[in-house]
Amino acid sequence: MSFLPKPKLHHPNLPTNKLGYTRRDYEGTISTLCAGCGHDSISAAIVQAVFELEIEPHRIAKLSGIGCSSKTPNYFLNPAHGFNSVHGRMPSVATGANLANRELIYLGVSGDGDSASIGFGQFAHAMRRGVDMCYIVENNGVYGLTKGQFSATADRGSKSKKGQVNADEGIDLVQMALSLGATYVGRGFSGDKEQLVPLIQGALLHRGPALLDVISPCVAFNNHEGSTRSFDWVRAHNEAVNRLDVIVGRDEIVHAQEPGTVDEVTQHDGSVLRLRKLAPDYDAHDRDGAISYLAERKRAGEIVTGLLFVDPEPSDLHAALRTPAAGLNRLGDAELVPGAAALAAVNASLR
Ligand SMILES: Cc1ncc(C[n+]2csc(CCOP(=O)(O)OP(=O)(O)O)c2C)c(N)n1
Ligand code: SF4
Ligand SMILES: [Mg+2]
Question: Which residues form a coiled coil (predicted)?
Answer without folding.
Answer: none
